[in-house]
Write a structure and sequence with these properties.
Layout: E1 11-15, H1 22-36, E2 40-45, E3 59-63, H2 77-92, E4 96-100, H3 105-114, E5 122-127, H4 130-136, H5 142-151, E6 154-157, H6 160-170, E7 176-178, E8 207-212, H7 220-230, E9 237-242, H8 247-256, E10 263-267, E11 281-284, H9 293-300, E12 305-308, E13 323-326, H10 331-342, H11 345-362, H12 365-388
The structure holds ligand GMT.
Ligand GMT binds at residues 21-24, 26, 101, 128-130, 158, 181, 213, 217, 286, 288-293.
Length: 389
């Protein structure tokens, strides 16, 4: 097993939800960057993560197959994942499993460890947000989530806010490290004269963008209403990137507010680095957002953010400096701040430049990659020590 120094290439298994959601995106960006740094990375998921495109010499994707059987009304994905973990750990001699999203990934990792007493490997769990705030805090999964956290060698929360929430909900039984979301600032960069094949960015019709999984927590309706209020009588466009359960509601609202001509539903986009620089403002209207990866990616592209002051959003967006944050649910205030930015190109440029500087200084992928490597080595060392006692 490799250990002791961050110079050693590791063999790392990454379990994640292979969706366009923040946890899957982060896990994929991290895995690819780790492989570029010399580590061998094995993704474990039920399908290929959307941002895993192209060929990378040290990246492997192992699909978890869940067998169907008439008795299985609910096929046991957690067991199938644990089995796949065991197979890959044995065949590829992994040093470590890094699981993204506590449920069920941390439990599957624990099970894999229990079933392989002779093999030492570290388990790192990253808590992303809804695994704690929505899923883990409910009665159905509270105890197993707590167990998964406690059994991990190292636990990461993506914001100070999420760390506090985790300790509040589950009690202070485990040390939690805060490692924020990160962004590749060389790929996510301001538009600087580039043009977009998808979007017409012209001064008379500025682009307001929203990017999410259209779940109720994102309050997509608030974005649409604020846009209608802020841009009445103008040619501003609203571009909605993503898909999910609230799409039908939003489409009906757009028609009701007579916005069909100015609103585009773009659907799912795998690589948003070609899209975000063409936004003039990004709106994040979430009721709860443990971090807000879309806000960070927008900042890296020099785009100011207007949003609700919920969850960890203020750890990303500096109110009145790189964007505006207003009280959750205050749609008129959201609209007023949107109007302020849309009517003032110089302010947008100023906020955008500060957002970009903030992304480069605090959330750059290469710096946070080293932080992950240190945590991996700590987990491996901790596991070695535990095995000896
Ligand atoms: O709801 C989403 O945005 C998806 C969700 C996920 O788990 O994939 O995102 C969460 O993880 C992201 C990456 O750490 C964070 O940036 C998001 O803030 C967080 N979402 C929520 O807390 C609602």
């Amino acid at each position: 097993m490799n250990s002791g120094t961050t110079d050693f290439p590791l063999k790392i298994g990454i379990a994640c939800y292979p969706t366009h959601g923040g946890s899957g995106v982060l896990a994929t960006e991290l895995g690819v960057a780790l492989a570029e740094r010399g580590h061998e990375v094995h993704f474990l998921a039920y399908s290929k993560p959307p941002r895993l495109s192209g060929y990378h010499p040290r990246v492997f994707c192992h699909l978890v197959e869940v067998s169907e059987y008439p008795l299985f009304k609910y096929p046991p994905y957690d067991l199938a994942l644990a089995s796949k973990m065991i197979e890959v750990i044995n065949e590829r001699r992994l040093d470590l499993l890094h699981v993204h999203y506590a449920i069920p990934h941390s439990i599957s990792a624990y099970l894999a460890r229990q079933l392989m007493p002779g093999r030492r490997f570290g388990i790192v769990t990253t808590l992303h947000g809804t695994d704690i705030t929505l899923v883990g805090s409910g009665n159905a999964y509270r105890d197993v989530t707590r167990f998964g956290i406690e059994q991990s060698d190292e636990v990461i929360a993506v914001s100070e806010w999420l760390k506090k929430e985790t300790l509040r909900i589950f009690g202070a039984t485990k040390e939690i490290q805060v490692v924020p979301n990160f962004v590749d600032v060389t790929r996510f960069r301001p538009r600087e004269g580039r043009t977009s094949p998808q979007l017409c960015a012209c001064p008379e019709s500025p682009i307001v963008m929203h990017m999410s999984n259209f779940r109720p927590v994102k309050r997509l309706g608030d974005t649409v209403r604020a846009f209608a209020d802020a841009t009445a009588g103008t040619k501003a466009q609203l571009v909605l990137v993503g898909d999910g359960p609230d799409r039908g509601m939003a489409e009906a609202l757009v028609t009701e507010l007579k916005l069909d001509e100015r609103v585009t539903f773009l659907g799912l986009v795998d690589d948003v680095s070609d899209l975000l620089p063409f936004a003039d403002v990004l709106v994040v209207s979430s009721e709860s957002e443990s971090f807000g990866l879309a806000a960070l990616e927008a900042h890296a592209c020099g785009v100011p953010v207007v949003g609700y002051d919920s969850g960890g959003m203020r750890e990303v967006v500096e109110d009145d400096k790189s964007g505006f944050l207003v009280r959750f649910g205050d749609v008129p205030a959201l609209a007023a701040r949107m109007r302020t930015l849309l009517s003032d190109p110089a302010l947008r440029r100023d906020f955008g430049a500060r957002g970009r500087a903030r992304a480069v200084e605090h959330f750059d992928l290469s710096r946070l990659l080293s932080v992950h490597e240190r945590i991996y080595h700590a987990a491996i060392e901790r596991r070695g020590r535990k095995a000896e006692t």
